[in-house]
């Protein structure tokens, strides 16, 4: 879907994080006026290449209302969340507080200030361990970890509110495995302790970690390791702009999977990381992590047909290469 809206205002929670910052970049380049709201607990101020920043917590409804009242956004994009599956299993209440209760807080602030359009950062974790692949949007939601459950709860909030309030519409984007970095190496993943496989593998190649752990080699897959649908972060950012155009055109609330429709195993990713970096880093096979499904592949016909979304980086090597350029840039600047 081609971008036609200009100078509309978008309020972005969690915009200083990995995915949020790439979306803020895409919004700025498309001519939107952007305001980011982030507590910088995992995000980075330097990752914001467009717009202003309000530093605040999602549980601070007074500040949310004050900020929304002053900025008067046409839409909200909600990224702010805790995202680590393993941590959600060991500390579930953190995830229900940060991901579910704080989303409710934001929705209440939006109602109080008359903002009626939201794009929500959801996840394929809402599907759990699906019986059939690829996973389509109508697949039953059966999350197997608190992270997925916390996001599913927010989707229920959105659905119920849209039924109760004719002036509220939303798009929920269910991400599969987001990876890669801005093709111009302006942005990338910059967490102190990354858990994502690709980032972890590249940092291991650079010597930041002594070894890369592979969690589980006994899954019912061809090589015994988990299979995931990896989507380049720049393509995901474009999906958000397409979803925004969709809402601004007056379309009804909708949910879309964000993936490419095919997957790669952990072994595939490790092999490609070694090929791209030219470094044969140490890999250690260890036990499964609790809460990891064996395979997740997106059914992505809906987003391509309804939003006219055209990904440009559907290639594992490209994903790894852009992430690698970013990691080398971090090393060069001493990060």
The CATH superfamily of the largest domain is NAD(P)-binding Rossmann-like Domain
Shape: globular
| Largest sheet: spatial strand order | 3-2-1-4-5-6-11
Largest sheet: 7 strands, parallel
Structural class: alpha/beta
Intertermini distance: 37 Å
Strand content: 15-25%
Helix content: 25-40%
Whole-number total of structural domains: 2
Count of DSSP H/I helices: 10
- DSSP, total strands: 14
In a few lines, what is going on in this structure?
The chain is an alpha/beta fold. The chain contains ten helices and 14 strands.
Describe the structure.
The protein is of the alpha/beta class and about 325 residues long. It folds into two domains: about 10-180 and about 230-260, Rossmann fold; about 195-230 and about 260-330, Alpha-Beta Complex (UDP-galactose 4-epimerase, domain 1). The protein contains ten helices and 14 strands. The chain has helices at about 20-30, 60-70, 85-90, 90-115, 145-165, 195-205, 235-250, 265-275, 300-305, 315-330; strands at about 10-15, 35-40, 50-55, 75-80, 115-125, 170-175, 175-180, 210-215, 225-230, 230, 255-260, 265, 285, 295. A seven-stranded parallel beta sheet has the order 3-2-1-4-5-6-11, sandwiched between helices. β5 (about 115-125), α5 and β6 (about 170-175) form a beta-alpha-beta unit. α2 (about 60-70) runs parallel beside α4 (about 90-115). It is globular. Residues about 1-5 have low confidence and may be disordered.
Topology:
Elements: E1 9-13, H1 18-29, E2 33-38, E3 52-55, H2 61-71, E4 75-78, H3 85-90, H4 92-113, E5 117-123, H5 146-164, E6 169-175, E7 177-179, H6 197-205, E8 212-215, E9 227-228, E10 230-232, H7 233-248, E11 254-258, E12 264-265, H8 266-277, E13 283-286, E14 295-296, H9 301-306, H10 316-332
Parallel strand pairs: 1-2, 1-4, 2-3, 4-5, 5-6, 6-11, 7-10, 8-13, 9-14
Antiparallel strand pairs: 9-12
Helix pairs in contact: 1-7, 2-4, 4-5, 6-8, 6-10, 8-10
